[in-house]
Amino acid sequence: MPATESRRGGAGERQALLFAGGDAPPAPASIPGLLPLGERALVVCADAGLVHCLDAGLIPHRLVGDFDSVDEMSLQRAEAAGAQRIRFPSAKNASDLALALEGLCEDGVDRVTVLGVSGGRTDHLLFNWALAVWREWPFSLRLVDASCDACVVTCERALVFRSEPDALVSLLALTRVRGVTTHGLHYALTDHAIAPGDTLGLSNVACGGEVRVAVSRGTLLVLRVR
Q: Which of 57, 117, 170, 224 is surrounded by the most beta carbons within 10 Å?
């Protein structure tokens, strides 16, 4: 049976917030709502993600990158508050965001929410979202921007969340996906196959209440449109 991922997380899970440098993160006031009530999170910034983090009134625990897109004053402010700076050369084989995600693999976190993955150059945006299938991550992965709240679904990590009636929910295949089964969506799927590029999963509609999405093989991105 696949494991179940809840929208709000489970008791005792260790959470991480990872700020990327895109120009479309959620509004600062909405960021605390991404965590379960009363939960604290490990906060990590990939390069210019530090600006979004500070704008949200948060101080990061860790800074990762070559820091070519963030001002020195912001870096010093974060370090003075106790942030650890991990610097990489500008000539490297992975993006700042990829390196920050890899670092979280060593922290024993259960859930990672990435903010600011969209905006700016199209190539950066596409590579940011494609990190969901770069490797098998040892944590559940959630990608959030100004218009979508997306969760990665695999055979080991099903998704369960509550939704208002008529909310738009899209199912995007990141690899060839088999056994796609949904509950609580108007256009229900049962043991369905979806290939990358297939628009079958675009703009489904929530019935209201609990929504469940599971797959038997592959990686699916479930995007809840704001």
A: 117
